[in-house]
Amino acid sequence: MWSCPKCGEKHEDSLERCWNCRTDRPTVASVDSPPATTGPTIDDLVFVGLNGYALALDRKSGKIVWSNSEMRSGYVTLLLDGDRLIVSTNGYIYCLNPLNGSILWHNPLTGYGMGAPTSLTSVRGQSEAVFVQQAAAEERSRSSSG
Question: pTM of the entire structure?
Answer without folding.
Answer: 0.55
